[in-house]
Recover the amino acids of this structure.
C-alpha cells in the first residue's frame, strides 16, 4: 500500500472480484479490481496519452461507443474532447457503475449507460460509430468480444495490458488486428499497449 493511501470503500463483485476505491496523494481517487487499477489514477494518464495520439487529430466524433465503461475514466476524457458527441457506455458490472457515480463523477459526463454484456449489446445494436473504445477487462483478464467487425467504427481503440505474461498476449492480439483493419497503430503508454485501428 502506498504511503498516504486511504481506502474509501471495498466491495465484492461476481464480475471483477475484490473491488477497492482508493485515494492517494498524487493519484487522486481510483478504483482497483484485484489490485489492478481500472478507473481513475494511472488509467486516466494512459487514456489521455492515447487520445492525444495523431490518429485522432482529424476525427470529429459525433457518435462514440465504449465497451467496458468501468468507472468512466475514458468517458470523462472523451466528453472533454468531444463535448457534443453522443456517447454510449456499456458495462457488465453494476458495482463499477455505482462506484463510478459515487466517487468519479460518472453522471456528469452525459452518457447513455447500458448495464449489460457487450456481446449482447452488439447483437441488438447494428449501428455504425465514429469511434469505438474496447476496454473489456474483468480484473486483469481481457474479454475478447466476438462478432466485432471493423465496419462498426471509423476508428477502434483496443486497450491491452502489457507487462510480464501479458506482453505476448497483446502482441498476438495486435497481429490478429492487422489482418482485420486497414491500418493499425501500436501505441505504448506506461504498462499498456493500445491498438488504434482504422477501418
Amino acid at each position: 500500500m502506498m504511503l498516504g493511501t486511504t481506502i474509501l470503500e471495498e466491495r465484492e463483485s461476481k464480475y471483477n472480484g475484490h473491488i477497492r476505491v482508493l485515494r492517494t496523494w498524487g493519484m487522486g481517487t481510483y478504483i482497483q479490481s484485484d489490485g489492478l487499477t481500472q478507473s481513475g489514477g494511472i488509467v486516466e494518464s494512459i487514456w489521455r496519452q492515447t487520445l492525444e495520439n495523431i490518429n485522432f487529430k482529424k476525427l470529429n466524433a459525433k457518435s462514440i461507443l465504449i465497451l467496458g465503461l468501468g468507472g468512466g475514466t475514458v468517458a470523462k476524457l472523451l466528453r472533454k474532447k468531444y463535448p457534443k458527441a453522443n456517447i454510449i457506455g456499456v458495462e457488465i458490472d453494476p458495482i463499477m457503475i455505482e462506484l463510478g457515480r459515487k466517487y468519479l463523477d460518472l453522471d456528469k459526463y452525459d452518457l447513455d449507460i447500458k448495464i449489460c454484456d457487450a456481446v449482447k449489446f452488439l447483437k441488438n445494436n447494428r449501428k455504425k460509430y465514429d469511434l469505438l473504445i474496447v476496454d473489456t477487462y474483468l480484473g486483469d483478464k481481457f474479454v475478447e468480444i466476438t462478432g466485432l467487425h471493423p465496419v462498426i467504427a471509423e476508428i477502434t481503440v483496443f486497450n491491452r495490458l502489457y507487462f510480464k505474461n501479458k506482453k505476448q498476449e497483446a502482441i498476438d492480439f495486435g497481429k490478429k488486428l492487422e489482418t482485420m483493419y486497414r491500418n493499425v497503430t501500436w501505441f505504448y503508454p506506461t504498462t499498456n499497449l493500445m491498438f488504434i485501428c482504422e477501418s
Notes: The chain has a mean pLDDT of 93.
